[in-house]
User: What shape does this take?
Amino acid sequence: MGSWLSTWLSGTKSVYIGNASSVRDYRVQLRGSRSVILFGLYLIILIGIAMFVYSQTADRTGFTLVQAQFQLRQFTSTIMILLGFAVAIVAPGLTATSVVTERHRQSLDLIFSAPVSPKYYLVGKVMSSFRYTWMLLVLALPITAASVVLGGASWSDVLIAYVLMSLFGLVLTSFALLMSTLASKPVSAIIWSYVGAFVYSGFTFLLSTSYTLGRMFGASRDNEASWWVSMSPFSVLDTSHTYTQVGSLHVPNWIFVLAFTLLASKILLLGAGSVLGTSGGKEIKGLRIYALIYIATFALLPSWNARPAFTPVSSASTTAVTAPIAPVEESLRFAQEQGQYLALCTAPLLIFVPFIACFGFDREKRYWPNGVFKLKNIVDGTPAGGLPFLLAIIGTLVVAWNVGCWFGAKSALRAPFWEFAFYVTAFWTFFWALGRLISSFFAGLKTSRMMVFALFVLLVVIPYPFLVALVGTFTDDANPGPWNLYVMSPFMSTSDFSRADIALAYGLVLAAMAAVMAVIAEKRIRSKMVALRNYDVQPN
Amino acid sequence: MLEVKGLRKEYGGLTAVKGISFNLNPGDIFGFIGSNGAGKTTTIRMIATLLEPTSGTAVLNGADVRKDPMAVRRMIGYMPDFFGLYDDVKVWEYLDFFAAIYQVPVKERPGIIDSVLELTNLTVKRQAFVQSLSRGMQQRLCLARCLVHDPALLLLDEPASGLDPRARAELKELIAELGRMGKIVIVSSHILPELADFCNTVGIIERGELLAFGPVSQIVKDIQPHRVFAAHVLKDPEVAMQTLIQLPSVVDAKLVDGELRIEFVGDIEAQADIVALLVDKGFRLAAFREDSADLEDVFLKLTTGAVN
Assistant: This one.
């Protein structure tokens, strides 16, 4: 135990202290006058905007004390929004090219022929980018301090805002690093990193808006709010003091954001590490195991908080939970809703299924078909482990959802939920089989992945506007008619219980098609090998 | 010591390396010869732990590339057929970076950097930016990078490609010096005469199979057991051929492109007898020289030019 601990400590120390990758980048970043000029420009712009905003109110008279306080707080808020924008622009920009340019320069092989793990390398990259982002925040400290002096914010406001801003920067840095690892060209890494930053910023801003608008219009004066309202850096001043009640404790939401951000960053970096690491390396194993843990955790959140319209259990004082006593229809509706939510929560699989299903030639790695379903490969990243891992994801989600509903709503999930669970399993298995089938036709891995994505759009996204134009919007009352031909029609209503039957029918059809496609793909493997040989006659 | 045991790499249906085995000792300079796609780089990358073997393994001083790749990495210096240099750093910073990732203690780094710069004749370029170096200097810097952690094994993949004759000669001398320092050096190259000059062992690989392995002289002897002399006789070479074949030291004689090719077994006296006989019989002898096979002949004889 002692030797393990000392090995772990020395390994961790070498990764985080004096990381060679970070030191090298630091030397380059701060070389010459480039950094001084950039930081100087940044400060001038920040001070200029701050003075402009302040001058808008400084000359005006006749403010009440409350109005003056409000104006000063608005001033601080503007500074924080500016900082948020600076982080959102700088963090992805600095990180997005870091790995992809090394790949272009062909220096990655040199690094990974040394005793360097992907973790060491990626942590170094995060540190060098994040340090620069942090410099921006530190340089802005005099201006934020001025807000405190003027009375627009307290020191604790500024401190929490800086923590939340740093966490925001960490997520964007980690995401950009993943994009940089995945992308084949620097420009695509930059574009995707900024798309990610835009989506994350927008999404978290929308989450926080529900709280800030509520307060603005007097819905609540209380600081209790869901933890995710604190994720946005653009409303950081309004949400920094929110809390979540856990038992009798008021836990500040920034602690939840801290936990979430660190976990999200870790999973993003594990994703990047699994791309850089060898097949079956500990990064990809870690990524898959962590993914299952996080899926279980995140499934518990909505299911634990799900509240049925009926009262499922008369008393929670007994340890043995009795079967729910509820109106049948409400109970059915609750189960169907939960099934639909579960299915919707699997939407991110759209990104992952092409990665775990497809095989073939990539620029650096070759993912060769090593079987259809092998449990022993479930975490090693090879194609044979793709289906087991996909089923493990859905299984984990279903189990966690049931646990959440059982302990949260004290309600066992009944039949319609299971129809949806089957449907969602068949749905993603269908796309997995489609990935294998396409891979058996194309040598290039990226082509196969893009084809799966394109077919998803063709089968799932495009039919919706087409059907709306053809038969109008789906309604429970009208005969759904052609809507039943749409693969997503099980989601079209929460009150129409025939949706569960439709889900079951679609599940059966999709499962059968998946089986057929998987068999055809297996039969084509041999010709795929020939194609791969022709694709790259010089494997050296 | 490096022991390569049945190293095999398969890519699905394609076998890039088919169970290669060989042993190398400290001080050995091993020339790895093969056409493009023969499996040289795949083998080198497996030894460098950058590719996982499908089966078989390589053991360097007791460390197995499959079981303990990190220990192997600490003992190898890998120089691929590309530079992979960072343009935006100085020469010493570049070496310091690699010394750091090889976990060379901070205090020892300046001394080590000075030593490898001196060895590679780059001391005057210590403060220069990497991008300002000539191609030959960049190649030497890459070699210096491989040496910062004093590796037991150097894997040099096509180190001479793209270098001018002078830079090539310098590199050759440097590699020979590394061999004298007791390091195992594996060099893959297309330039066969150069390899023959400084490699004490060579291996010829084609379609993933090691066709020949051993000292250059031994391999040459295997494919050409007898010494060969070429004689240029100005008149009646056929008659001269018939005359020479009577000698007990002449195993065979052929007329190739107007020249006599004489396969010969015997000492220097017997060699002199050939010349004396031709002169005594009145043949006008314009030239007489030994025409032994070299590495290129061996390579062309053993390989077919096929790739995987």
Observations:
- The radius of gyration of chain B is 24 Å.
- Chain B has two domains: 2-221, 225-292.
